[in-house]
Design goal:
Length: 210
Amino acid sequence: MFIVSEAEVRRAVAEALAVWDHRNNPCSGVELRLAEGTTDNEVVEDGVSSLSFREERWSRNGRAEVLARYPANMLALTSLYAKPRPGQPMVAEIGEADIELNAVDFRFSTDGRVSQSVSRTRDLQTVLIHEIGHILGLGHNCAMTERERRFVDNQGHRLPLCSAAGSALRSAAMFPVESLATAPILRDLSPDDRKVLCALYPVRASARKR
């Protein structure tokens, strides 16, 4: 169950997109905007990036099959559709992304209310900023399990465990908030988030001359 109106959702999405947009990050060339209209909310490669609240079942496209179900403690899931760049098989271009939000086990607010109680209320914009980071190709900045420590960051270093992460990592948009004991409200990028963003999407030389 989510407790915000459609207008509040659209406002939260627009503000979350703006956090990653080049207008708030001059070192980056990323340009994001919220399209008008609605979709059928299906997670499928159809050329349209969408946002869906799953209210009946927390599963892929709300399906009833056991194998389609997501973990109950997962706030959201972003599905990416990418294709290898021609001539560069190790480089993929993200063409579409669909976000699903867990409105079965959590509630969402836009007024700064969060809760660890039975209602499990989370700040919608905080969650969206994190998921948009995934859309842009950013991963979590820490490992939730020892197994995940096999992954490395953009400098080749092994990821630290989330449970042992310091304040700099915990205040970043790409920290997995479900691993925290308290629900945070993070509505801006950390210096580390911005550094990775600008490394992945630098301003083009032609844009700098304008």
